[in-house]
Structure formats: C-alpha cells, structure tokens
C-alpha cells in the first residue's frame, strides 16, 4: 500500500500555524513511508474563500519547504463529483430531501433548549411521501439533502494518536446536511461530505489533521460506509496552545506564517520548531534537524495527545541555532532585505565583502534576522547618537586625551589591521599614561555611541574601511 495523505486548507484566511503544523506532520509521514503528499483547496464556501488566501497558502507551504506531490486540487472544480455522490445516496434511500424551514429549525432548537436538551435535528422529513414532498415544493420551500444517521449506531476507530475512539450515533445531532439546494437541484456540498468524496477519490490512506476535527470523524466514517469505501486511518494531532493554555489565535499576534517571516524567523527554524509541536524525536536531546532528518524517524507513536504549548523562547533558541550555523554568504543574502527595508544604503564602500565582514561580526549576537537591523545601524549612519552612558564616558577625565592620542597615532599609519590597531592602543596607553580600560570604553563610546556591542576592534576596522572612524573620534573629543 502506498501511503497517500493530504493537507486540505480552506482559503478563508492566510496559512496559519495550526494548518502549517498539520501540513508538517502530513509531509513527514508521507516522506517516511515514501508516499504521496497531496494539496487540496477546500473552497466550497464561496463567500469566505479568497484567491489571495489561496496564494498565501501556496507561498507559505513553499517557503516552509513543504512541497506537495499532487495538486493543488480545488473543490469548486469538482462539484459534479459531489452531485453524483449525493444522487447515489438519494437513489439508495440513504439520503433524503429535507424541506424544514429555518424558522421551524429555530423553533425546534428553542423547544430543545427549554427542555435542557442538546440541539439536534429531529429527522422529521426522513420518510416524506411523494405527496408531502410535492406539497412542500408547491409552497415554494427549498430543500437540503440530509444523510441518515441511526441513533443506535456505535462508531469506533483506532486513532493513531488518541487510540480507541468511540461515538454514539445519537450524539451526532440527527440526520446531517450533506448538500444545500440550488436552482438546478443539488447544490453546494457541505464540508463533511465533500471531504469524504475527495478522500475516497484521491485514495487517501491516512487522514492526519487537527484535534478540532475529531467530532467530524464519526460522521465521515458513516459516509465511507454508506459509499462502500475503505475507511482511511485517522490521526488527530494535538492543538497548539498559547502560554495560557488556550488555542493559539490571532490575539497571540500571529495570523499568517508570513508573520513569522516578518519577525525574522528562518523557514528552516520555524519548520523545525513546528515539528516539535506535539512530536518528539526518538533521541529527544536532538532538537535541531532538517525536515528530511525528521522524516526518517517520524511516527505517530511519538505524537502527544496533550495540547502543544507554543513557546516563543524555544522558537527563538531554535532560530538562533540556525542563524549561528548559517554560511556567511547565505546570512548576508537574508539580511540585505531587512537592511534595505530599514532604509540603509549599501554605498560608500559598503560592498559585498564589507557586508560579509559585518555579518561575521554580528552573527553570534543574532536571535532573529530582524535583530540584524538595530545592531548594524551604527555602520550605516554617518554619525551616532550617544547613549547616556556613552556621553558620561566621553566626559570622563582622560577620555579626550586618550582619543586624541589614538587620532595622532592613526595619522602615522596608512593601512589598518587588527594587529596595527592593537599596537596603536598599546602605544597610546603607554605614551598618554591612561588605563587601557578607560581607553577601550572611550573608544567604544566614540565609535558606536554605546557602551556594549560586538567586538570593538572588528567594529573599528569596519568603520575604518568606510572612513567613519576618524570623524567619529574627532567629534567625540570636540
Ligand atoms: N478544510 C478543513 C480545514 O481547513 C480540512 C479538514 C480536514 O483535514 O479534513 O480545517
């Protein structure tokens, strides 16, 4: 048997973290078994579906490296298939036309509520006679198609994550609507129905999706049975929770996967972290891996039932591991757009080799790519603003003398290098009789405007290459 799995997002919003994590599990499972990963766009809700969301879903999956083998298939292009399937169920008496009006349904709900009963359809149009149907039609009522659900049915499945699952037919809300009416007859199919027809047609072997779909599974199993199809395996992955233990939502500041890009996460780190949301590798000490490496050892045995807490600190840590381990060339490519967005100009000697030296300097300090903006600002502006601490430092006794010494020592040297700078420092300490600590702190304050930051000598060299060191030293003593 070839494993065939699918991700079936509805384009009613951007690709969000929950769907993306479900896609990760599907992808890992498919790759582990050498199977197929299929993309299906569930766009039957035409009012809420938007082409820009579909595009966002494609781009998001591609950005994360979750390439699919088949599709994208669009449900709106497959309406004929659903119509035929509905007709077959109607012909077999497993489904029927229900003419109950929304007012009647409302009244039913109110009465059930008054009796403290759970809302459910009371199957009142299950066995209409042709005369009754004709009378309703003559009244101008429209219909929906309902699928019969027997109250005394027990539906069981062995969930790959949650184990033995059992539902009672009576808990499924009565006969379920599988399609609406349209002017031409059978109209828009509903989610539970379309998904089963598609999963059958696409020969899906394993339905891997979020835990929020558990209650749909018994209904879907009944539909598989009715359509005499093989029932796939089901795996319901735990929800992703925020720090308060509630489902991660827009309120947590993330709607789309691209919000994470904006925040400076790399796709490799994000997808690595998502893999850990509910799954742990057999060697749980190994937390940094590629999708391919994870696929080799992925199984549902190591997927948790409990909700997975989204931990920003952990994601930051994973991201920093990727950034610190990245080639300078690649990191430079990734940082350039952030610098450009910040309005930094790559002129005045800031050529590629210089940018790469800057990257080498800041790389160990970065957690997110956006951190590369603030930390590099002093290299892209002519002058620097002094922090309060830096101004205090520059007013210290001996500070100006030390910096003057540095300027005159520089005047007698043409090309600067790390060792030459070290020599200059030694020479000034000796000649001016200043403490090295004071000199270094004053240098940092003058050159960077701050009292902390990346390696001072390397920063100085970079500033020197674009001719900014001397003007800054001069200004600091001025
Ligand atoms: N369209 C459904 C969703 O976006 C798919 C659910 C499923 O995988 O069956 O949640």
Overall description:
- It is a single chain.
- The radius of gyration is 32 Å and the shape is elongated.
- The longest helix is centred in the N-terminal third of the chain and has 16 residues.
- It has four domains: 156 residues, Rossmann fold, CATH 3.40.50; 114 residues, Glutamyl-tRNA Synthetase, Domain 3 (Glutamyl-tRNA Synthetase, domain 3, Alpha-Beta Complex); 52 residues, Helicase, Ruva Protein, domain 3, CATH 1.10.8; 90 residues, Arc Repressor Mutant, subunit A (Orthogonal Bundle), CATH 1.10.10.350.
- Strands 4-5-8-9 form a four-stranded antiparallel β-sheet. A three-stranded parallel β-sheet has the order 1-2-3.
- Helix 1 packs across helix 10 and helix 16 runs antiparallel to helix 20.
- It contains 20 helices and 13 strands.
- It has 478 residues and is of the alpha/beta class.
Count the beta strands.
13
Tell me the number of structural domains.
Answer: 4
Structural class based on helices, strands and sheet pairing: alpha/beta
Tally of helical segments: 20
Major β-sheet profile: 4 strands, antiparallel
Q: In terms of quaternary structure, what is this? A: single chain
CATH class of the largest domain: Alpha Beta
Q: How much strand content do the residues show?
A: 5-15%
> Helix coverage percent of residues?
40-55%
* Reported CATH architecture of the largest domain: 3-Layer(aba) Sandwich
Shape: elongated
N- and C-termini, Cα separation: 79 Å
> What hetero molecules are in the model?
glutamic acid
Mean pLDDT: 96
What would the CATH topology of the largest domain be? Rossmann fold
Biggest β-sheet: strands ordered side by side in the sheet:
4-5-8-9
Low-confidence stretches: none
Fourth-tier CATH superfamily name of the largest domain: HUPs
Global Rg: 32 Å
